[in-house]
Amino acid sequence: MLTELAALNIAATEDDKRWMAEALLLARQAVDVGEVPVGAVVVVDGQRVAGRHNEPIRLNDPSAHAEMLALRDAARQLQNYRLVGATLYVTLEPCVMCAGLITHARLSRVVFGAADPKAGAVQSVYDVIARPRLNHAVNWTGGVLEAECATVLRDFFRQRRGRAPAEIAGRQGGAGG
């Protein structure tokens, strides 16, 4: 099975770096509004069709991950719930929820920056998007601008740990995050 999964992991291109840089800009915008800094961009035929950052706190919606929001916007923009031919660029390896959406939307490819050793569903903890038993397998590339993506996340959480727990809880309506 590892051989099958490895075959779906394709090398990064210069375009991948360009689009990941756009996703990083969105992740940095998330920091400005107190959200976990994850950004996502959807590209079809070399054109950006959607881009969002995490918003679960602002929207009071646990599903408001950057990937989820960007894919919803892309589907509306393209007027199709199937996103065949689309590539998703995201600064953090998608979780199980987002990986399920990626598979159902029939994306062609996912490109992520930093691996998520605690919840990643592409290669780190799970291999959801590349399971040979699913009806659609998604090509993927990991580690694009990995250091930059990881730094944004690490700096965000370092800053949060430096704040008083009551301040964090008050900002999030008492929820963890």
Describe the structure.
It contains seven helices and five strands, in the order H-H-E-E-H-H-E-H-E-E-H-H. It has 177 residues and is of the alpha/beta class. A five-stranded mixed β-sheet has the order 2-1-3-4-5. It starts with a helix and ends in a 6-residue tail after the last helix.
Number of continuous helical runs: 7
Mean pLDDT: 88
Roughly what percent helix? 40-55%
| Lateral arrangement of strands in the main beta sheet | 2-1-3-4-5
Could you give the order of the helices and strands? HHEEHHEHEEHH
- The radius of gyration computed from the alpha-carbon positions, rounded to a whole number of angstroms, is 16 Å
Can you give me a brief rundown of this structure?
Helices cover 43% and strands 16% of the residues. It is α/β, with parallel strands linked by helices.
